[in-house]
C-alpha cells in the first residue's frame, strides 16, 4: 500500500495482483482490459497506476481489471471470475441502465410506495402503453411530452413534442422501445438554468442472525449538469432548443458561449 498525503492508503498494482490471486514478481503488473473502453482518460488512469493496458480481446481473459463502456458487458459478466474486478454491478444493466427497464421498475415502486415516489412523472413505455397514451391525448390537449429512445446516450434521439404522430414516428417499427413522459413545465432552476443533480449512495449489507444489516456509503462528491440557455416553458418556438431543456453535457458543450467561457478560464 502507498500512503497519500491525507493519511489514506492507495492500492498499488502489487496489492491488486495479490488480492486477485496473481503471483507477484517481475511480470506481476496488473492487466487492465480496455478493449471495450471509449474514453482516453481511463487509459491514462490505468497507465498512471502502473497497470498494463490491454486493448485486444485476445489478452482480455487474463486481465484482472476490466473497464467496459459498450454493450459487451452482457457478454463479459457471465465470464467474470472471482479474481476479476469489473466496472459494473451485475444486474444493473438490465434493471437500471436501460430507460425502458428503469421506467418499468419505477412504475412498480410507485404502485407499492405511491407517496415516496410521487415525484416520478407519468410515464409510458411504447409500444406496450400506446393505447393509454392515445387516451391521454384525447383528454389533455395542451400537455408537452418528452420522448426518449430506450438505449440512447448523451441526449441522442430525445425531443419534446405535443404531437402524437411524431411520437409514433419515433418508434419506427418498434424495433426498440420508446419512453414517453409528461414534461415538467416548471422545474427547479439554478440561476435561471435547468439542471440535474446526481448523488451517489452505495447500499451494502451484512448477513446476521436477525437478517440483513444495511450499511450505507454516501459519496461526498456529487455531479451537477447545467443547461446553457436560460429556461422558458416549452412552446412551439422553444420546444426544439435542446440547450434549454436537456442537461446532457454532450449537447451543451457544443454551444459557443460555453466554449468561450471555458477558453477564458484556461
Describe the structure.
The protein is of the alpha/beta class and 266 residues long. The protein has three domains: 2-88, no CATH class; 90-184, ATP-grasp fold, A domain (Dna Ligase, domain 1, 2-Layer Sandwich), CATH 3.30.1490.20; 186-266, no CATH class. Helix content is 30%, strand content 26%. It has eleven helices and 13 strands. It has helices at residues 13-19, 40-48, 57-60, 73-76, 92-97, 99-112, 130-139, 164-170, 242-245, 249-252, 256-265, and strands at residues 2-3, 9-10, 31-36, 52-54, 65-68, 85-86, 123-126, 145-149, 159-161, 178-182, 189-190, 193-208, 211-226. The strands form four sheets. Strands 4-3-5-6 form a four-stranded parallel beta sheet. Strand 11 and strand 12 form a beta hairpin. The longest helix is centred in the middle third of the chain and has 14 residues, at 99-112. It is globular, with a radius of gyration of 23 Å.
Amino acid at each position: 500500500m502507498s500512503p497519500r498525503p491525507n493519511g489514506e492508503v492507495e492500492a498499488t498494482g502489487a496489492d491488486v495482483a495479490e488480492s486477485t490471486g496473481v503471483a507477484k514478481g517481475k511480470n506481476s503488473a496488473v492487466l487492465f482490459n480496455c478493449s471495450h473502453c471509449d474514453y482516453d482518460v481511463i487509459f491514462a488512469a490505468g497507465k498512471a497506476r502502473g497497470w498494463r493496458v490491454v486493448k485486444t480481446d485476445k489478452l482480455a481473459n487474463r486481465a484482472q481489471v476490466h473497464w467496459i463502456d459498450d454493450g459487451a458487458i452482457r457478454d463479459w459478466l457471465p465470464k467474470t471470475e472471482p479474481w476479476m474486478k469489473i466496472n459494473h454491478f451485475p444486474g444493473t444493466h438490465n434493471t437500471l441502465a436501460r430507460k425502458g427497464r428503469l421506467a418499468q421498475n419505477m412504475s412498480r415502486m410507485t404502485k407499492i410506495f405511491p407517496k415516496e415516489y410521487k415525484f416520478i412523472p407519468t410515464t409510458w413505455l411504447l409500444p406496450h402503453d400506446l393505447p393509454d397514451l392515445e387516451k391521454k391525448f384525447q383528454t389533455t390537449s395542451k400537455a408537452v411530452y418528452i420522448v426518449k429512445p430506450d438505449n440512447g446516450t448523451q441526449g441522442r434521439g430525445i425531443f419534446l413534442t405535443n404531437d402524437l404522430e411524431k411520437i409514433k414516428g419515433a418508434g419506427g417499427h418498434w424495433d426498440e422501445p420508446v419512453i414517453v413522459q409528461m414534461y415538467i413545465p416548471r422545474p427547479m432552476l439554478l440561476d435561471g438554468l435547468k439542471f440535474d443533480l446526481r448523488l451517489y449512495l452505495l447500499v451494502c449489507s451484512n448477513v446476521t442472525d436477525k437478517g440483513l444489516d444495511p450499511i450505507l456509503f454516501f459519496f461526498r462528491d456529487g455531479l451537477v449538469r447545467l443547461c446553457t440557455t436560460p429556461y422558458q416553458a416549452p412552446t412551439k418556438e422553444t420546444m426544439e432548443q435542446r440547450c434549454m431543456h436537456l442537461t446532457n453535457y454532450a449537447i451543451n458543450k457544443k454551444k459557443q458561449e460555453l466554449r468561450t467561457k471555458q477558453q477564458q478560464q484556461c
